[in-house]
């Protein structure tokens, strides 16, 4: 819990790694994920570092692995389970893996190219077959000839001949030529117009569509093609026709000169197509066997290459000592993990067989350490909410432990509904129970991943919504009469005529027997029938929102004391914390007191004479109110006293801290004191660093030394400090007013959610329930389905997201700014499990 409250205590350490064991030591550290490495060669570019060649080899292996994964995915071969976690391979084994991958790449490349060549040949033969089959109908014009042929008037005699082939045309003395082939259907109209314009009518174009889809060799997608036959007059026209065919990417095939030649070609094509199918099937089987064998090891290779590349990247961050026999690395490490770090270095040295062991040495530093807050699967979601506002400064109070309770509670105040809370809790509980399901964890749907990562937040919000739904006594806009209402209608003694003639009747709690006592849990269910229900809930929820808001903000101000005490800024307790708390409680804390006092002091008998809290609160600032009925004896004097205290706390908050620091800065030089001890002159910079390291371990902040004037190298700027404190004072005083009003969103969204739920019930569900005919039961089924869909989509998703965002704002702006700086740097350990993978990003894994 202490780690979650403040984060881990960090230290800067130096690792002395022997050259022979550095690779194994860093591999051990990568498996544990304990340390964050610092770059000791910031001025050296990436291409000038020592292990740049090894990193290039890893990138080449990653390229080959990407090619293998794409081919495996294209062949629809499933990868094995990802339970393996191989260690990083030794440097002497890298070349073996490299050669194995290159050999596999060459083999796959050859097989794939052969397969593509065979497929291309098969496509050409198939197109040639279709061309010969369809063009037979163009030359031999039978009675079943398709009406797609286009003829022109230059050869009118062709319409009269029932049968015409190449030899008969030669007898007529016509120097005719033929070009046949296939073209995509979308291009045929433009192709036809181009032929007509260029050849000026000296061509005859006949075409017909192929019944089946053919594969496009460029894109691999199935497309519709058209077979065409062009008869042209003269050699010059033939050259133009061939150029036009090339421009439109037509697949041109030789046209047989006689029917006998056509039959021979068709028979030869049929035999070749059968042979190609046989060879292609065997090639695909062999390719699949190679890919299946590769898929068994590809995930292991991916992990090994990723680890190996990360190790060489870390080695480039290290520097060599003067003898070039030892690598020196600087790391940030949690103090509690130093023994584990030493054991990891010993294990790495033992694996490498080094004679001189590697070791670690803590060093003092004046740099601010990164922030490490250890979380588990339950607390990580709430910590992410806090980190989205800003990573906490080193060792400052972390709001996440309190957010675990306050965030779902404030959400439930706005979302309070028993039925909706049960649905949300059941959905979240299902995600929690199935959290180890790989299909749910490894999906690429970002919206689902957002819900799944926040499953524990949703579970807590659902459970708290059930609680607030019981308090509001609201379940799908209806109240539950579990314990029996505390109000009785019989005691009023109304007659039958009064029941029939009056639409609204008022229950008087002053009549004996009408009000028996409060409902045991939550709001009495009779208020669901009352005409003034909304007025009652408005007053109740508005005052409840103000009370919760003041308590929440006061708690945030109180938490700031933990930062002041830990960082040894005790003067802030008297000059910042005390004025802030007095200003908040003397004004708005008094408002909470008046609300609670009015609830307790006035009963149903004298409620008509109860004064208005709002009028009294306004008159408190105006120093008026003599003509109004007081809420309690001595109210005017107490209010004047509280206002005076609140006003006096403002100049203390504004001037107290800057004046004290100014006096402390000048007085420290004159008195020569440091924490009550006599300061000695430090002749070396090392002693100053040792003192600062000791202060850091004891909880002192580095900024305190400079701000207190205890750092002789930095000067204290009174104007800068005064300006900073003035901005803080104005922001805090105005923020107390605006933040209190901001908590009224609890009231507004709670009423909005209740009214939307009531409208949905009245306009959908009540329509189905009012049908008393036989068909009413059947009609109720689609009505309930519509009601369920609208409830989930509007009230659960949209209203839930709205309440989530408003609860987020209340924590970020109204709560955390009272004590949380959020200006730290997150601790990023070197861990193999946290390394990103480009293959996972591309969807290959």
From TrEMBL:
| Glycoprotein is among the record's keywords | no
- Mind telling me which residue stretches traverse the membrane in this protein? 409-433, 454-472, 544-565, 572-597, 640-663, 776-798
Q: What is its main location?
A: membrane
Any one Gene Ontology MF annotation carried by this entry is: ATPase binding
Query: Where found?
Result: Membrane
Keyword Cytoplasm applies? no
Q: Which Pfam families match?
A: V_ATPase_I
Q: Domain of life here?
A: Eukaryota
Q: Which GO terms describe its cellular component?
A: plasma membrane; vacuolar proton-transporting V-type ATPase, V0 domain
Instruction: Report keywords, A-Z.
Output: Coiled coil, Hydrogen ion transport, Ion transport, Membrane, Transmembrane, Transmembrane helix, Transport
Q: How does it sit in the membrane?
A: Multi-pass membrane protein
Residues forming coiled coils: 94-128
Q: Which GO terms describe its biological process?
A: vacuolar acidification
Per the entry, what this protein does is: Essential component of the vacuolar proton pump (V-ATPase), a multimeric enzyme that catalyzes the translocation of protons across the membranes. Required for assembly and activity of the V-ATPase.
Name the family the entry cites. Answer: Belongs to the V-ATPase 116 kDa subunit family.
User: What protein am I looking at?
Assistant: V-type proton ATPase subunit a
> What species is this protein from?
Sparus aurata
């Amino acid at each position: 819990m202490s780690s979650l409250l403040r984060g881990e205590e960090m230290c800067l350490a130096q690792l002395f790694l022997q050259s022979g064991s550095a690779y194994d030591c860093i591999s051990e550290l990568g498996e544990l994920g304990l340390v964050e490495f610092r770059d000791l060669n910031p001025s050296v570019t990436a291409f000038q570092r020592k292990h740049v060649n090894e990193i290039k080899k890893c990138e080449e292996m990653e390229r080959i692995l990407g090619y293998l994964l794409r081919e495996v995915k294209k062949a629809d071969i499933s990868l094995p389970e990802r339970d393996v976690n191989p260690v990083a391979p030794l440097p002497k084994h890298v070349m073996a893996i490299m050669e194995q991958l290159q050999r596999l790449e060459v083999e796959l490349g050859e097989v794939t190219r052969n397969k593509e060549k065979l497929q291309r040949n098969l496509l050409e033969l198939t197109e040639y077959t279709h061309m010969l089959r369809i063009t037979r109908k163009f030359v031999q014009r039978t009675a079943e000839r398709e009406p797609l042929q286009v003829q022109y008037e230059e050869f009118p005699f062709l319409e009269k001949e029932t049968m015409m082939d190449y030899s008969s045309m030669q007898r007529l003395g016509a120097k005719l030529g033929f070009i046949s082939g296939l073209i995509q259907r979308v291009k045929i109209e433009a192709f036809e117009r181009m032929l007509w314009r260029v050849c000026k009518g000296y061509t005859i174009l006949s075409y017909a569509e192929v019944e089946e889809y053919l594969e496009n060799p460029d894109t691999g997608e199935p497309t519709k093609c058209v077979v065409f036959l062009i008869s042209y007059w003269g050699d010059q026209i033939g050259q133009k026709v061939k150029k036009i065919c090339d421009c439109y990417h037509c697949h041109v095939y030789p046209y047989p000169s006689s029917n006998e030649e056509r039959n021979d070609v068709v028979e030869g094509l049929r035999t070749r197509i059968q042979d190609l199918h046989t060879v292609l099937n065997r090639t695909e089987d062999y390719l699949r066997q190679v890919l299946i064998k590769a898929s068994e090891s590809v995930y292991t290779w991916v992990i090994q290459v990723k680890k190996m590349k990360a190790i060489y990247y870390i080695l480039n961050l290290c520097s060599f000592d003067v003898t070039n026999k030892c690598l020196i690395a600087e790391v940030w490490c949690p103090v509690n993990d130093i023994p584990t770090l030493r054991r990891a270095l010993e294990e790495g040295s033992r694996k490498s067989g080094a004679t001189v062991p590697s070791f670690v040495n803590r060093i003092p530093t004046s740099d601010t350490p990164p922030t490490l807050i250890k979380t588990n699967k339950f607390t990580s979601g709430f910590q992410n909410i806090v980190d989205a506002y800003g990573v906490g400064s080193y060792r400052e109070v972390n709001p996440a432990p309190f957010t675990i309770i306050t965030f779902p509670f404030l959400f439930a105040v706005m979302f309070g509904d028993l039925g909706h809370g049960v649905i949300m809790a059941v959905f979240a509980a299902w995600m929690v129970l199935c959290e180890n399901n790989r299909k749910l964890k490894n999906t690429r749907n970002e919206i689902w991943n957002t819900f799944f990562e926040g499953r524990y937040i949703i579970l807590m919000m659902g459970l708290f919504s059930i609680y607030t739904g019981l308090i509001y006594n609201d379940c799908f806009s209806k109240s539950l009469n579990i314990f029996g209402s505390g109000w009785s209608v019989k005691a009023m003694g109304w007659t039958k005529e009064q029941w029939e003639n009056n639409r609204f009747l008022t229950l008087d709690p002053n009549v004996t027997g009408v009000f028996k006592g409060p409902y045991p849990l939550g709001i009495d269910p009779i208020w669901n029938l009352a005409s003034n229900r909304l007025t009652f809930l408005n007053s109740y929820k508005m005052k409840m929102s103000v009370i919760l808001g003041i308590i929440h903000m006061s708690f945030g101000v109180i938490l700031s004391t933990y930062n002041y005490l830990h960082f040894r800024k005790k003067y802030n307790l008297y000059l910042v914390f005390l004025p802030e708390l007095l200003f908040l409680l003397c004004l708005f804390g008094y408002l909470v007191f008046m609300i609670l006092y009015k609830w307790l002091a006035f009963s149903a008998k004298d409620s008509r004479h109860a004064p208005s809290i709002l009028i009294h609160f306004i008159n408190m600032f105006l120093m008026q109110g003599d003509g109004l009925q007081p809420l309690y004896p001595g109210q005017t004097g107490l209010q004047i006293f509280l206002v005076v205290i609140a006003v006096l706390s403002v100049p203390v908050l504004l001037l107290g801290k800057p004046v004290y620091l100014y006096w402390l800065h000048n007085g420290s030089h004159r008195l020569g004191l440091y924490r009550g001890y006599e300061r000695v002159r430090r002749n070396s910079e090392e002693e100053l660093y040792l003192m600062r390291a000791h202060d850091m371990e004891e909880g002192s902040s580095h900024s305190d030394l400079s701000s207190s004037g205890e750092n002789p190298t930095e000067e204290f700027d009174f104007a800068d400090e005064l300006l900073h404190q003035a901005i803080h004072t104005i922001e805090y005083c105005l923020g107390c007013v605006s933040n209190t009003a901001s908590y009224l969103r609890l009231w507004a969204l709670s009423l909005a959610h209740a009214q939307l739920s009531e409208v949905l019930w009245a306009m959908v569900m009540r329509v189905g329930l009012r049908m008393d005919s036989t068909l009413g039961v059947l009609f109720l089924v689609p009505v309930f389905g519509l009601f369920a869909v609208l409830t989930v989509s509007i009230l659960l998703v949209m209203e839930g997201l709205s309440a989530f965002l408003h609860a987020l704002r209340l924590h970020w702006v109204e709560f955390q700014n009272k004590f949380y700086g959020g200006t730290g740097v997150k601790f990023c350990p070197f861990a193999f499990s946290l390394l990103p993978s480009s293959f996972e990003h591309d969807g290959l894994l």
